[in-house]
């Protein structure tokens, strides 16, 4: 019997059962609505109770055991007083303790300011507890909890093997039947299955389950996404399929299918269990059929064998025909492998879905069935705000993977956790390459290789994971987990990799995500090839070097002989979308967003919340495009793993996704736009710089990264340069070419004089290769600028000369040198071009602290400096030579010409350029240095010219009056 396929109960029936159970216990309307939201969103069909199964979904007796007295008081021999509905968690059932100041969270809190700073005092009070470092559960509990249900076993089960199946329990599970302790299991990533044959006799029994979600014998690491409050939450309960099953005494155990593509066959390894232990002659019949065409079956293979003892292992080879269908990203063709086991009068059937595929390496590239491929991946960090635990239904995973595909991805890494069966099944169907991890981030109080129990546990857990999910073709890669710690980690992880290489060659193995890079690895996962690293601050490529798209990571990966996957690239933040708050209508609430929203409102900026979101989102997208294209430009690269396509709500609130935690778009980039630069086929342009003057010639080598299903024959490629409004300026064709699989394939060089661009312009280069296109903004300014009509005093100090001009009613442009603003008035804000990396709380205030600019692109002051409302490459120079100014310290409510968006935690009103009246005169203050080194800074030269033109016009009419002392107060000199 296929216990994972026994889903005959409709979702509507299960939905109604859940609501009815909740109404029995929760009489209030609010409790009913809570249950409706949770179970309506995440219910999963359970197996219908029949002659061979007893569905355990529904109402259970329940009791918390915070004092750990349940075992000594023999709660398994008493009736528990409370009620709970399963599948579910304590949190989804509104069970546990109120969140408070002393809640014993699971996870590191790097920024402890919530516990002591006065600005959080209101959120530390009972009744108004709100934490900023992750999503907040409606109730919290860490400890033992007891679940109990009375069941009746039919007489027909006599003489059969009987088991309890819990698809996902969190996490240490101890089972009693009546008063007999059956045993304990503690897998974090696989089902808990208990043999109940001896105790579960026909008649009425009491099933009692004790679940403990505390770190006990082994420590996977408090930040592991399998257990941490940073992500899914440290929940207590049972989810997914939950049932008792009766099976023949002689039944099918572990079946491992190892496809051999080269020899067009499958090696079948099978364990047959014999609960009766008496010798038996059995018949095993095997046959494979294409999943999409079950009528097209391959010839069966029949074996008669004798089993002695309680189990036996067998191995056979099954021929897959002359031209088996091969599984890949482009063609996710699957087979159903059907097994019939006959022992006497008993028959058991099992169906296993698998794929014929060879996921391997060739030099520094991955291959799928001998063809090169490049991993375009994102992390999945167990982020499920509705429930606080992962979905076990295929419908939800199909939605997630479909979104990922629309954004051009073909790969997903499960960071320090293992997903349920449904995720593998959907990835199989849709053609996704998965990296699975054994539920551990052994750091922050944990380590590997130092002799602790985690060392043994990882071998046990990895075997459970492979035994449970190893037949899925999508399961291509495995590692112990994330970023390990331990003096002996290299030796331990090297042995771990070698163990699995020898045991199962159907997938690839590496030591750990992030590190270490060791000789045993099939592939490396390292952060070396990305444009921003931890502790880089504003010294990274994107913040310290003028914009270009000419660099790649060849020098890094060429030092190794195996594929390199860039670890957790991106981590670019966006401003919170406060419209999401209402979507957190389940187990986890966005109290962190409520804090940030209240801070923004208190600072008088709430009306700009959506503008901050969209402007910072455009910059975030630009940063991700730069990161991804650098990977695609790297010849023979292995791939990348984004952190992340969607937001990470923990670790201080890391809003690093262009999608929300619900995998929905935020309004500033669509899947169609994102997939232009993230896809199987992507045109690429190597700009040596993004800013030009019109006396220069644009020289841009153009290439293509192509990892599609087959080479592109006689492909047409073209280029076009147009103004931002779409007016075409230049165009051209590349010679028609056959494009092979791989990257770094040159299409040609655009060589175009820019003399025809006589006005400052944002231009757009579009390169099309067949049906695929990609675009880049670049900027062209006049090499020679006319003199302004009016005499504007330009100064870098508010000195006597400047004050004399102002007092006489003149115009002054104060353009400050970087470092001129006092720390307490904005000078301490680390301004950078990129958006915030990860977040400032988790990184201890790592620079930059800003999220780009916000301006009105139609403001007259910017008429000669073409801009959008958000940062683009032409703002890199300004932001590299600027301090922020706290505008409220100049005068409350001051509206700048150009604003820089502050970190959402502090949400200050910060400006780069503002205007005001001082004395009888008119003043523009630019905290951007527009003077120093202007000969090599065409952007500064052009922005200065635009401001001067504005100040010399009738449109320059500032209305806000500011005293000289207020201006001087914010400046160091």
From TrEMBL:
It holds the Pfam family Glyco_hydro_2. PANTHER family: BETA-GALACTOSIDASE. Keywords: Glycosidase, Hydrolase. InterPro entries: Bact_Beta-galactosidase (IPR050347), Beta-gal/glucu_dom_sf (IPR036156), Galactose-bd-like_sf (IPR008979), GH (IPR017853), Glyco_hydro_2_cat (IPR006103), Glyco_hydro_2_N (IPR006104), Ig-like_fold (IPR013783), Ig-like_GH2 (IPR006102). Residues 56-237 form the Glycosyl hydrolases family 2 sugar binding domain. Its EC number is 3.2.1.23. Residues 362-510 form the Glycoside hydrolase family 2 catalytic domain. Residues 250-357 form the Glycoside hydrolase family 2 immunoglobulin-like beta-sandwich domain. The keyword Hydrolase applies. This is beta-galactosidase. The keyword Protein biosynthesis does not apply. Belongs to the glycosyl hydrolase 2 family. It catalyses: Hydrolysis of terminal non-reducing beta-D-galactose residues in beta-D-galactosides.
